[in-house]
């Protein structure tokens, strides 16, 4: 069933755009109009939406932006064509969609991190865009994209961007995060609006820039109603956000799950932080009050696309309800911190070309700590191969034995992709086809392998994070991820990766940026929590329910998995987390496909006539229609 509780659709300033308006599947929809009076943005939104008007120009920003109403009005007044927006974007960027209707032309874009996405299709020949792929699928009657589903089933969490960002619906296309969509009437084109900045800051200069960017993002995001809450797991990412938020939030609520792993020292560091945050309220949920990992495996997260992060969905929903019960309406989470501040060793290739002696020092340190073979590591550093060749190798080796975990990952991807053992031959063939097509179209994300790998980490994970936020929204809590704000990502990219990477220190760029904000005994932590025991206990407890889920499997009916092999694999002793991770992804695919099958049978929310308000372009914050969902500030 298509969940149309929140989202928006973009329509062109044409008679055709007005004609397809009744197909937009949002009940009780709001409508913002073009200057012509035709419908422009149709949907339901609970975030702050800043809107400005000037002559034939209409400008809207959905989400978190440093701009206020006055700034947006000045930008709108300066536009005469959609391309003019380029020079004003630095004043608007945060974690937001920027949408413009300019004298008949329309421009639409999301965030370059990939957290705010856009999709496009044609409905009866009319171009339409939306922030949700399932909305466009409902408008067109699209079915499941079989190749995309097969790749998700086969490889799941291993699939990096851009293959992981493909729409799961046939005929619905994902806009690249660094592209904007331009319409001139019914003609459309895509163009690049963002490129990775040059690494022109030293670590010394980058530290205050990262601190300033992160501070500004946290400071501009208080909830308009209710309380602000934040994770306080004891890790550096969430702890930094907690101390930043506490400076101006006396009623801050911190939250964490108690750990099942006896050796997990997150408890120690979280306790130290909580004692120092003496003006905040601290909510710690003990293990016996948490749903087990893999609990309620048959519950779908979203009808939009499969989500790989399914093992903790019952816990997350429980957590969101607890936060809401304690008055929280906006919750800060540290997602994105690992991606930005723990770069992969792929940076060694660039360093070897520019500073070979320094690169050799890094290589020797990695080999000593991780037991990588020195000769093989140097060979990979010297020649990472071509970008397209990496994708073709993944297709060719999809059913090859998994390589040794002692093998370094230094190329264009995030590690070797291997099909899960329960994937059928037909499913594997479909996945290979898509991987080879990706090899023909994918391009490096930045000029060097170091920056490419950092951006690859970010964009490979934001697809899951945006779906994760839906579970918080169900409880009326907005999940906010400051590290994935475009301004923070830009600040990190300006620091050469090799200056804050390496095996010697843990997240040095973030740790140094938080000097004076986070107390030193916590800021200099060099360990990371282990949650393997949670997974082992949860899998044992919920294995019968998982097996029941795959009785009458929709994936098996499509010929993508072998249920007998799935049962056999789950009965074997698990030597590492590889199989539980693949299972987590498989559950996401199965539950999504069942939801998608429901949508295909006609159970989507019917289109509803919207009211065209004469006060559409008020620059005041949009009122909350539900009374519970918060808005970005």
Strand content: 5-15%
Please report the first level of CATH classification, the CATH class of the domain at 7-144 and 170-196: Alpha Beta
Number of helices: 22
Distance between the termini: 31 Å
Q: How many beta-strand runs?
A: 17
Query: What is the assigned CATH homologous superfamily of the domain at 7-144 and 170-196?
Result: Aminohydrolase, N-terminal nucleophile (Ntn) domain
Oligomer: single chain
Walk me through the structure:
The protein is an alpha+beta fold and 633 residues long. It has a domain at 7-144 and 170-196: 4-Layer Sandwich (Glutamine Phosphoribosylpyrophosphate, subunit 1, domain 1), CATH 3.60.20. The protein is 40% helix and 14% strand. The protein has 22 helices and 17 strands. The chain has helices at 15-20, 69-78, 133-140, 146-155, 203-219, 236-246, 266-276, 313-325, 337-341, 347-354, 356-370, 374-382, 387-396, 425-441, 449-474, 486-493, 508-513, 520-523, 532-549, 554-557, 563-571, 578-603; strands at 7-10, 30-33, 39-44, 49-54, 57-64, 95-102, 105-109, 119-123, 126-130, 173-174, 179-184, 187-192, 227-231, 253-257, 281-285, 328-332, 478-480. The protein has a 6-stranded antiparallel sheet with strand order 2-3-1-9-8-10. Strand 4 (49-54) and strand 5 form a beta hairpin. It is globular, with a radius of gyration of 24 Å. The model is unreliable at 601-633 (pLDDT under 50).
